[in-house]
Automatic annotation (TrEMBL):
UniProt domain ABC-type transport auxiliary lipoprotein component: residue ranges: 28-189
InterPro entries: ABC_trans_aux (IPR005586)
Lineage of origin: Bacteria, Pseudomonadati, Thermodesulfobacteriota, Desulfobacteria, Desulfobacterales
Highest taxon above the source species: Bacteria
The name this protein goes by in its record: ABC-type transport auxiliary lipoprotein component domain-containing protein
One Pfam family per UniProt: ABC_trans_aux
Coiled-coil parts of chain: none
Transmembrane segments: none
Organism: Desulfoluna spongiiphila
Length: 196
């Protein structure tokens, strides 16, 4: 009988140890649109703008947040994750920023079928880098372009931005990346409005 009691106690201790080691909570982060300090302007209110698709490199195409340790190594944090697929988060945030910057109410996410005979533009993005590093820098490097409603290429651009992470925790990193998406969105808005 004592052997059975010992086995039960040992099993309970192992179960408790397993629960303790797996009790680290996962935190989920979102990119947030940033209120524009000044409006970039406005475009014809009848114009539809479709944002997306966003292509990501494989190292970013995951729920975990990624930080750069050096030029050749990365840190993938199992307990700090994006709350939505990162490509969708970037597209959503750019679309909302564009709407706020211009006051436009016809900004939609890809795929969206614009009404026939409407004026429309599509912003697509190929992200090269979107991460933070150990030195406290956030980086957004993206090749992007604009097509018209007939899928003809109007513009091709390459934007590389960086900024400081104001804090050492993951929310500060997500906030810094959100600021870079806002800055990028201002570039896109100006390009769409000025036509160049």
């Amino acid at each position: 009988m004592p052997k059975i009691v010992n086995l039960i106690v040992a099993g309970a201790l192992l179960l408790m140890a397993g629960c303790t080691s797996s009790s680290t909570a996962v935190t989920y982060h979102l990119l947030h649109p940033v209120a524009a300090s000044a409006e970039a302007g406005s475009w014809d209110p009848s114009t539809y703008v479709v944002v997306g698709p966003v292509d990501l490199p494989s190292y970013l195409d995951r729920p975990q947040m990624v930080a750069r340790k050096s030029d050749h190594t990365l840190s993938v944090n199992e307990y700090q994750r994006w709350a939505e697929p990162l490509d969708e988060g970037i597209a959503r945030t750019v679309a909302e920023n564009l709407s706020r910057l211009t006051g436009g109410d016809k900004v939609f996410l890809y795929p969206f079928d614009t009404p026939k005979a409407s004026v429309s533009m599509q912003v697509f993005m190929d992200v090269v880098r979107f991460d933070t590093d150990e030195a406290g820098k956030a980086v957004l490097d993206v090749r992007w372009g604009v097509k018209n409603g007939e899928k003809e290429m109007l513009f091709m651009r390459h934007t590389s931005l960086s900024g400081d992470v104001e804090g050492a925790d993951q929310p500060a990193r997500a906030k810094a990346l959100s600021r870079l998406v806002a800055e990028f969105s201002r570039d896109v808005a100006e390009t769409l409005m000025n036509g160049k």
